[in-house]
Amino acid sequence: MPAFCTAKRSRSLRRSRFLAGTAALAAASTARVTAEALPPARIELGDEVFLRRAWRDLDGRTIGLIANQSGVTSRLESIVDASIRHGGIRVKAIYSPEHGFRGDRNAGASVGSYVDPETHLPVYSLYGASRHPSAAMLEGVDVLAFDIQDVGSRAYTYVSTMAYAMQSAKQYDKEFWVFDRPNPIGGAIEGPVLEPAFESFIGLYPIPMRHGMTVGELATLFNDHFGIGARLRVIRMNGWQRSMIWPDTGLQWVQTSPNIPDWLTTFAYVGTGLLDSAGINNGSGFTKPFLLAGAPGIEGTKLASHLNSRDLPGVWFRPAAWAPMVGFWKDKELTGVELMIFDPRRFVAVRTAVEILVAVRDLFPRAIDIASVSQMDRDWGTDSIRQSLLADRNPGQILDQWSDNVARFDSLRRRYLLY
User: Fold this and answer.
1) pLDDT at residue 275 tops 70
2) Residue 5 backbone phi and psi in degrees, to 5
3) Which residue among 103, 177, 224, 384 is buried most deeply as judged by most CB within 10 Å?
4) What is the CA radius of gyration of the chain?
C-alpha cells in the first residue's frame, strides 16, 4: 500500500477516535448536568392542595401572597412562581416578612418595598415602616394568603407577621387563607407561657415558647380565642401527623432565615435562642448558629462535664471555642460548649436552655448578666426566669413554676388542632 494511503488511513482513524471521544465527553457532560429527581415527599403541603384544587374557590378573585424563600412546594417551586405559572390564579402582590422576600436580610434589618424584577409584582414589606398591611397595600386584593415555613418557636417573627396580617384582613374586609405547613419540631409543648405584660413582636399572645402547633392551627387559635375575627380559611395538609418531625415528612429543608440553615437547628433554636439576652453567645454569627453556648472566661471542659452529668435527654455537650464573624461578638474569642443533638425526638430544648443558664450562673457567675430588667424578660415572655436565677433556684424549680400554665394551654389548644 502506498505511503500516502497509509497516512490518510491513519489520519482518518485518528479523526474517528477524536469524534468518538468528543461525543463521549459531551454525553458525560450532559449526564453531569442532569439533576437527579427529588425523592417524593410523604405529605402534601397546604400550598399544593391550593394549587391542585382549592384555587377554584377564588372564583376569579385576586390574591396577595405573604411569602418568602421558604414558601415552596415539595418540588421546591416558589408559591409565587407556581401561582403565576398556574394560569388560573391572579396574583396581585407579594408581602415580605423579616429577612425579606428572598431571605437575604439579617435579623432585625429593616426591609423596604420594591418591585420584584422576576415577577414584576410589587413586594410590600411587613418588616419596615409598617408591620401591618395598609389599605394601599391591599388595594385590589380580594384574598390575602400566608405561605411561610415556621420553626415551632413563639419567638419567631413570621407568626407575628401572620397575626398582624390577619388583623389587617379583618379591618379591610379581606379573606385570609393559610396554606398549612409542618411544625418541624413536632407537637411537644414547653413553657413558659407568655405573660401579657411582656407582649412584643416576638410574642403577641399567651402561648408557650414551644407551642407544638402548625401555622394553620395557630391562625385558628389567634382568630377565635384571641379575637382577631377575620374571615379565615386554612388549607390543610394531607398526611401530616403531630408525631412527625421534619425528616419524617420527606420534604427538603429551605433555610427559613440566615441563622436557621437546616432542620436540626430548629430544635436548638427554641431553647438556645433565649440565651443571648443573658450575655451568652449561642453561636449566632458563627457557622453553627444555636448549637453553641459560651462567653469569654467560661471553661468549656468544666461546663461540658457539669451539663453531661445532668443527663439531659437527646443531647451531649463537648468543649468548644469559636469567634463569631458578625454581630455583637464579632472577632471575640469565646469558649463554652457545643450541643451535639443526637436524638431530636427526645431533646427538650427549653429545659436545656434553663440548665445552661443555671450552670453558668453557678460555675461562672461573672459571665452572665441577669441583674437588671432587660431584653431577657421580653425574649422569655416573663420575668420569672430572671427572678429565679437571681434567687438561686435550681432547674427543676424553675421549670415547675411554668407547668400549670403549660397544662392549661395544652387543654386550650386541643380545640384548635387540625391533625
Assistant:
1) yes
2) -70, -40
3) 177
4) 26
